[in-house]
Amino acid sequence: MAEEKNLKKEGEELAKIAVENGLGSKQLALLYRLAKIKPLPYVEAFVEKQMGRRVRGYIPFGRHVLELLEKYGERKASLQRIIMYANMLYDYYESLPHIGVQDAIEPIIKGITERYGYDGIELSPRRDYTELRVRLTDFRGNPKILASQIMEKIGENVPEASKLNLRVWIEQLEWR
Description:
The chain has six helices and three strands; from the N terminus they run αααααββαβ.
């Protein structure tokens, strides 16, 4: 049981490194598939190849994978489990910044849009930006102006939101 916790912890660290460096989830999934079906020297060569090709985020991620390969040697099952945990936890670590930001920006947006029938917000990570949908039930104005006001207030009050490259969309809901 303690061994499994250590493998999960290693997987968490690998997932964090992948997310922090912008490595795509498909690259991580590919590495997991390779670790399951190919011998470890092949996996090592693949990681080195991706690092040499300068695949986005792969250099710091690849270094960590190479360290794990060295640390776990021929214990292929342990390495597979680490990559499995990293693959499973990737989405969780990718969404963490959004969770904190959503809690911080929701009261700001609600204050600005309450008179327009505020019905909630939704943050959705995209490849290069984060989409912020503001749902309103009674808005008849120019959505671009309101989106600019929202962005301005968020920028003034929630500096960590600037890391997300937000794009605001005003969503007019049908009358219920």
